[in-house]
Amino acid sequence: MDKANYIAEAVRQLSDERFYKKLDYDPTSEFSSKIITALQTIYNDGHIDEDTIGYLKPENAKPGRLYLLPKIHKVNNPGRPIVSANGHPTEKISEIVDFHLRSHVKNLPSHIQDTTDYLRKMESMNPLPPVTLLVTLDVTTLYTNIPHDDGIHSCREIWDSRNILEPNT
Q1: What pTM value is reported for the model?
Q2: Mean pLDDT of the chain
Q3: Cα–Cα distance between 169 and 156 in angstroms, integer?
């Protein structure tokens, strides 16, 4: 994708006010301060130890950085937006959340890791029942369309069912 088309696609996506809001300032240091305050409370309450708070505490945080992966198989090569959180105040916290949610997600009957996993699951169901109808879907702006409250509620349910209950929900 040439530079002009890449920039035009980024501007098109970032101009969609359903998903993005233009800010007049960089809130990264504000986020960092709030996270440090919350971590200190969790530490003071005895839910994390000194090593954990040291690991999770953001230092020299950077804002997330958006880039696009062009979908070369689609007309006009729309971009799949990726926000890199490397160095972001929530990067380390996200690692902890992912660690605790990953095993639950992998055990969902609807989870498909990749094409090889899909093919293996299809082979194990061979032959398919005669009434089977195979369907494919292409979801537009998948993550931005997940209702935040529903996503948080689902994560909280899984988090509460962990074998290791610290840190608490």
Answers
A1: 0.76
A2: 90
A3: 7
